[in-house]
Automatic annotation (TrEMBL):
Organism: Lyngbya confervoides BDU141951
SUPFAM superfamilies: Trypsin-like serine proteases
Highest taxon listed in the record's lineage: Bacteria
Any matching Pfam family: Trypsin_2
Protein name, UniProt field: Trypsin-like peptidase domain-containing protein
InterPro entries: Peptidase_S1_PA (IPR009003), Peptidase_S1_PA_chymotrypsin (IPR043504)
Amino acid sequence: MASAWLGAIALSRRARALSGREIRDRAAAITVQIQAAGSSGSGVLLQRQGNRYAVLTAKHVVDATQPGEELYAVTSDGRFHGGVVQEMVLLAGLDVALLWFAVAPEAPDYALAVVGNSDALVETDRIYVAGFPQTGLAITRPTFTITQGVVTGKGTYERGYGLIDDNVTQTGMSGGPILNQQGQLVGIHGLAEQVVQGVPVKAGLSLGIPIQTAIAVLPIAVPVLSPEDPPAPADTFDQFLDRYYAALPRLLEKRDALSLYSFMPIHKERFRYRTRTGKVQDYNARLVGATEFYQRSLARGESWTILFDEISIHRPDPNRALVTHRETVKWSLWPGLLRGVSRRQETYEWERFDHQWMIVSGSERVLDD
């Protein structure tokens, strides 16, 4: 039943809403200014690999930048990084871009955004938008700015836009983070609502790209927290797993394989999965199989309930971990009417690459039918 499926632990704790000062401090630490030829915008620190950082921003911020042209990311300590961006990924169809820049050995460790769940946002939820407005007559130098407002609408619009809010923003804040009350990244701030005499004016309402829309097409794995989980730092691998598993239930209930496998921090090149029949699948084969499996399940109108009997962690060395869980899957076609039960054991091998834990292999074994 659940051969293309990864189980989850639902934790009952709920994250408290942070104070305005706490939101401000978190936003200031993860927001960068992007300076390109003749323009500027904002971005958010998303991931680190060695001495390189990934910045998520709006595509229109860097649209005019040509290969080889200078483009800088200015971090919260005022340092300029990049010179020539090492890599820039423009995500087709979306107003989103992913940049990579290198830092000098003496640079400090920069905070990274904790990614939340934009699907959980509803109208009237409070959110915050941060960025660096462009300089002008009044704002004469780059100044970190954060505003608060509420979600006023949700939908599916051109270029990936799906959030509408009433935050008062200015040109130059495009590409900056949209944060929820727990300080989690739930969107990327975008284009002006209207143009007046050729000048973008963010009057009344602003637009944003939901973070789930962006990470679904990113070429990197980005763990996502649910709104119930506090964005505590992953000081240990156990804590990381706690938060990782807690974020899975909502994705699994949707049975959207692309969203699920984009969330899972899988090393796509190395990943291999041995099924219960002994067949070994790579990442692409696993994704295709999960998609087909979920589609059949949804077409039958099934609903699932997942229970865990046991989870164990074995650490061969500080940079490797074998995580085994046993799951019981109950599914039904109508509420309260049980159709079947299956139990299996899964083992995943995790490795740490440049401060980030990633899944490199997995296997499953049926415990009973």
